[in-house]
Amino acid sequence: MKAADDIIITARDVTKVYQLGAEEVHALRGISLDVRRGEYLSILGPSGSGKSTFFNMVGGLDRPTSGGISVDGCNLQDLNQKQLAWIRCHKMGYIFQSFNLIQTMTAVENVSLPRIFAGESPAKARAAAAEILEMVGLGHRLTHLPSQVSGGQQQRIAIARALVNRPGIILADEPTGNLDLHTGEEIIQLLADMKKQFGITIITATHDMKMLSASDTVVWIKDGRADRIARKGEFEVAIGTIDGKTIA
Amino acid sequence: MNAQPSITNAAIPEQRQVSWAVSFQVSWAGIRRRFFRSLITMSGVVLAIAFLTYMQVMNDIVRALVRADDAVLNVLLQQAGVDIYAGDAPDRMMVLLIVLSLLACLVGIINSMLMSVTERIKEIGTLKCLGALDGFIVRSYFIESSVQGIAGTVLGCLIGLAVAIAIATTNYHGYIAANLPLLSILRSLAMSLGIGTLLSVMAAILPAYIAARKQPVDAMRVEE
Ligand SMILES: Nc1ncnc2c1ncn2[C@@H]1O[C@H](COP(=O)(O)OP(=O)(O)OP(=O)(O)O)[C@@H](O)[C@H]1O
Ligand SMILES: [Mg+2]
After folding, report:
1. Dihedral sign (CA B16, B22, B23, B27)
2. Which of A107, B43, B74, B105, by CA, is between 20 and 30 Å from B192?
3. pTM for this model (two decimals)
4. Quick check: CB of A203 below 6 Å from ligand 1?
């Protein structure tokens, strides 16, 4: 077990400016944040506050305008495209609001993709994929296409796909956004279980307060800045007092 | 673009390309399950190649029949509008038509593959999030549109051949079997196959490179 203050992700003064024609959109105005290894961190904030933008930077999907992000002590901005692809493949798992499964591939084919990209043979990748699908409770849906299973099951497939290379970090941008409350809670529970079982660091974005139960840390983002950071034990109280003020 | 790697970052390996064989295996699922969509993409190739094959095979047959120089057959040939004295002079109009139909088929494949790139921006972004390199995206689009093009070409050749033989048989009855120019028909088929395959592979290049330029962030956009 690593020490509790072992830092896996550091963001320093991260800004992002989008150029929309002549207009500049300041999506992030300087976010600094430390994420501890093995914690479940939720980012909360109203629509347009910059959650997804921040995610993209942390996940190595996009580059900040200024500032730096390091993952496991390595600066993402110094990496070339192929190194970034390696990081995305081996160190990160992504979960999306709209599941983003490949529609023409079965559950097990979807889940085996990251393994194949990591260089494993399709047959071996398939075996590993089947095993992890079993673990998320979809052992009986291996050869179903995404269109043949429910939304909650699709998100489970996506979670299996994110986990299959045993990454250190899972990034989930509004993983429950397209699910009903009950199914959403099940998904959050599954993520929390996986965190416990594999010691994975989980970062999620949401604008739903009800999805915070599993979080160790909650970060409120507002207008491109980290407005408030609360560790477990602090935010249950905090929710009562600031409800409605920071949440759209 | 590629920043100088710092000491710690040199430890991060570069993602390796998966082999062509594996790329093909992965792409195959999509090709198979998008079969009906593929049929539409293919239809342009099928028609153009069928037309090309028909014209060539018909020409082969007629020339063989003219060479046979049979009195009854010459009457049949003239009835069918063949100038039996013109010899081998190629029909300019027909050549033009064939070239135009091949061009239309080339543009058709490029167009429908570009449309499928637009439809699948999110899928491409997702693949990149999972660790796919640009090269993999290029290959999978290249494989998909080549496979479609080649399948369409084969189908077009068969259809063109069948139609030519059917029409020749109705016009010239039993003379066909006796004077079938097998060798030149085979040569014509090989030429159609070659042209169709070449066109399909050429048409695949541009959409494949455009697909690979899509970014992983594109996976994040919510709108379908
Ligand atoms: N590609 C882009 N080009 C221009 N502006 C963008 C782009 N992406 C995001 N923005 C802008 O950046 C700001 C932050 O967007 P972001 O998507 O990060 O918000 P969010 O917190 O994820 O919102 P939501 O909860 O609706 O998903 C918004 O004002 C948005 O309009
Ligand atoms: Mg968002």
Report:
1. negative
2. B74
3. 0.86
4. no
